[in-house]
Amino acid sequence: MNPVRFGANYVPSSGWFHSWLDFSADAARRDLADLAGLGLDHVRVFPIWPWIQPNRTLIRRRGIDDLLTLIDVAAEFDLSVSVDLLQGHLSSFDFLPSWILTHHGRSLFADPGVRQGIAAYAAALSAAVAEKPNVFAITLGNEVNNLWPANATTPEISRQWAAELIGTVREHAPRLLALHSLYDATWYDPGHPFHPADNTDLGDLTTVHSWVFNGVSAVDGPLGPATVTHADYLVELAAATSTDPARQVWLQEVGAPRPDIGADEAAPFTRALLESVGANPALWGVTWWCSHDLDRSLADFPDREYDLGLFTVEHEAKPAAKELAAYLASARRTAAPEPRPALVCDVDLRTQPERRGEVAPGSDFHSEWVRLRQAGPVAIVAAARAADLDHLRARGVKL
Questions:
Q1: Which pLDDT tens digit goes with each residue over 87-136?
Q2: Per its UniProt entry, which superkingdom is the organism in (predicted)?
């Protein structure tokens, strides 16, 4: 059983992602020193797509070089790096190049010319970062499904779009993990045009993003069992949806958002969350959102975005950071967990995405899982595989 990886989504402490416009290696060095001091082993980084590809046939070498410099700075601290390609959507803002917007009015998912341009961008960045030994993964983008409905798509188009780009990444960076990143409407919204099977079938790991402001914190409050186990629940849904019992799940984003989690509750929430999900046998890694707070001199963000960091903009470690560091010092997984009881899910998320609401936070199924989970880890098993003993054994289910 491999140890779980722990890292942070890197949000620069000065200038937010606008700092890419005048990138400073020294500023990044100070930020990454903060993270390495916690005992983290990786960062997920976000170059801004339209600033590297401002025209469909122009890819700026300076933008790529700044990204490569950041990767080298991470290596100074023994941090490995995952690179996201399409930003895309970040902290409530969408960054899209002008050759998609204005009078062009193109869908980045459906328009053939746009897809050709994105493929060229993906090829260039993948080939460049693949040369760096501390890069381990490339994700197509940050929660690309947030870019719908402004960019028209269908389930068939969404899947084809992602599959083609995964192929491009693998062609140009064959040693790296190629991944697809979707926020949790994929799992819970019956009408969403990105389906659970897209996440569990495309790419080399399944990625999930667990945010308790999706309604789960309203179920039982900031430290209630539904709230602190939501990350574990989402990892279980992902593991149950995959037909491959060995497929791992990366908890690629998780954090302690206000006001759902109060300042005084951040530390106990962090500890309870990590203790819950850290024992899940499907878990590949946990990457906290995010590294540093957002400076309140920057305007027009949702209020919760300003205080999500492990560190303040002045580089002071916050309670969640201290709790995470303490957890890492004592609880890295080295052995397989004990077999767990299972709850069978009658909703087949692979073939019945229109029934996703039946597993959403607060549903009868979710409530029953939370009730059982209070006694210890509980697997979720798809009804179609509930009698497959080999599958259950591989998933660590008690027979």
A1: 989 998 999 999 999 888 899 999 999 999 999 999 999 999 999 999 99
A2: Bacteria
DSSP structure class, residue 22: G
What contacts 24+ positions apart, CB below 8 Å, involve 149-154? 150/94, 151/100, 151/107, 151/108, 151/109, 151/110, 152/107, 152/109, 152/110, 153/107, 153/109, 153/110, 153/193, 154/193
239 and 249 Cβ atoms separated by less than 8 Å: yes
The answer for 39, left when phi > 0, alpha when psi is -120 to 50, beta otherwise, is left
The region, left, alpha or beta by phi > 0 then psi within -120 to 50, assigned to residue 184 is alpha
Average pLDDT of the chain, as a whole number: 96
CA-CA distances (angstroms) from residue 100 to 84, 88, 258, 375, 379?
19, 12, 34, 51, 43
Query: Tens digits of per-residue pLDDT, 209-231?
Result: 999 999 999 999 999 999 999 99
Whether this model's pTM surpasses 0.90: yes
Domain ranges of the chain: 5-333
Spell out a b/e string for 94-133, using b for 16 or more CB atoms within 10 Å of the CB, else e. ebbbebbeeeeebbbbbbeebbebbbbbbbbbbebbbebe
Average pLDDT of the segment spanning 303-313? 97
What class has domain 5-333? alpha beta
d(CA 53, CA 64): 10
Q: How far apart are CA 185 and CA 196, in angstroms?
A: 9
Amino acid type, 381: V
